[in-house]
Amino acid sequence: MPDSVGKVPIKVKVNGKQHTLEVEPRLLLVELLREVLDLTGTHVGCDTTYCGACTVLMNGAAVKSCTVFAVQADGAEILTVEGLEKDGKLHPIQKAFGDAYGLQCGYCTPGLLISAYQLLSHNRQPSDKDIGRAIAGNTCRCTGYQNIFKAIRLAAQSAKGA
Amino acid sequence: MLAQLGEEAKLLAGGQSLIPLMKLRLANPRHLVDLNFVSGTSYIKEESGALRFGALTRHAEIENSAVAAKVPIIHDCAAGIADVQIRNRGTIGGSVAEADPSGDWATVLLTQNAEVHCLGPKGERTVPFSKFITDAYTTLLGHDELVREIVVKLPPKNSGGAYLGFKRTAPVYPTASVAVQLSMDGDVCKDAAIAMGCVGLTAIKATEAESALRGQKISDKLIATAAEAARAASDPQSDMRGSAEYKRALVGALVKRGLEIAMRRAREERVEVSHIYA
Question: Which residue among A69, A97, B6, B112 is least packed, with the fewest CB closer than 10 Å?
Answer without folding.
Answer: B6
